[in-house]
Amino acid sequence: MKISIVKDKNQGGQLAYNFFKEELDRNSQAVFGLATGSTPLTTYEVLVRSDLDFSNSISINLDEYVGLAADHPQSYKHYMWKNLFQYKPFQHSYLPDGEAADEKSEISRYDSILEKNPIDLQLLGIGRNGHIGFNEPGTSFNLKTHKVELTESTIAANARFFDEVRDVPRYAYSMGIGSILKSKRIILEAFGASKAQAVKDMIEGPVSQQCPASALQTHSDVTVILDEAAAQKLN
Ligand code: F6R
């Protein structure tokens, strides 16, 4: 794992932008794995302001809530449109369909998208409990796309985006850790003290299902972009 410590999340976004640019310079049809949440927002801001052209590229998102309509303000589809796609359209952007009637066929649809479009660059955030995507502690590292029951801590963390905790969806579709590890290159961003323990466990802890992000230790091309607060517990 390469570790880059930056001054703040804006500098982190700038650094992540360099990875996107490098990938696009190499191949205008590159496939990007994308994340939602607060962490990648500065990266998307830099991408939006840039002159990068994604119109030949493909994006594949990590996850989506089950049961939220695509136009719900908290759906990840809406988040991606609001923060990136309305300004930087991709040739094709894939997200799990949270409203799919048949869950099994939705899961196999997403797996076949991933098989046909191997990810060149995957952008990740990390949860306070070490989750990546919605792969919570205890999840097998071999899983492909799957339906996840969210933990109470993730529901509580996401509650800030909803009027009431009971409005937070209980399930999500997520790429599995097995799918994430197939990406050729991975960047994971973490900003703020609330991520410091998870960052330490990911980088210095044992490779263990208790910290899903520790699986990244087994990948050969991972760069972790941290601000000082997120890096404060590292030895
Ligand atoms: C989002 C995702 C999650 C988040 C993580 C951190 O697509 O996959 O794993 O990256 O929950 O969320 P934030 O960035 O809001 O702290």
TrEMBL record:
Residues 21-222 form the Glucosamine/galactosamine-6-phosphate isomerase domain. One of its GO terms (cellular component) is cytoplasm. GO terms for molecular function: glucosamine-6-phosphate deaminase activity; identical protein binding; isomerase activity. The keyword Isomerase applies. GO terms for biological process: carbohydrate metabolic process; glucosamine catabolic process; N-acetylglucosamine catabolic process; N-acetylneuraminate catabolic process. Coiled coil: none annotated. It catalyses: alpha-D-glucosamine 6-phosphate + H2O = beta-D-fructose 6-phosphate + NH4(+). InterPro entries: Glc/Gal-6P_isomerase, Glucosamine6P_isomerase, Glucosamine6P_isomerase_CS, NagB/RpiA_transferase-like. Keywords: Carbohydrate metabolism, Hydrolase, Isomerase. Its EC number is 3.5.99.6. The active site is at residues 63, 129, 131, 136. Gene3D superfamilies: 3.40.50.1360. SUPFAM superfamilies: NagB/RpiA/CoA transferase-like (SSF100950). Belongs to the glucosamine/galactosamine-6-phosphate isomerase family. NagB subfamily. This is Glucosamine-6-phosphate deaminase. The lineage of its organism: Bacteria, Bacillati, Bacillota, Bacilli, Lactobacillales. The gene is nagB.
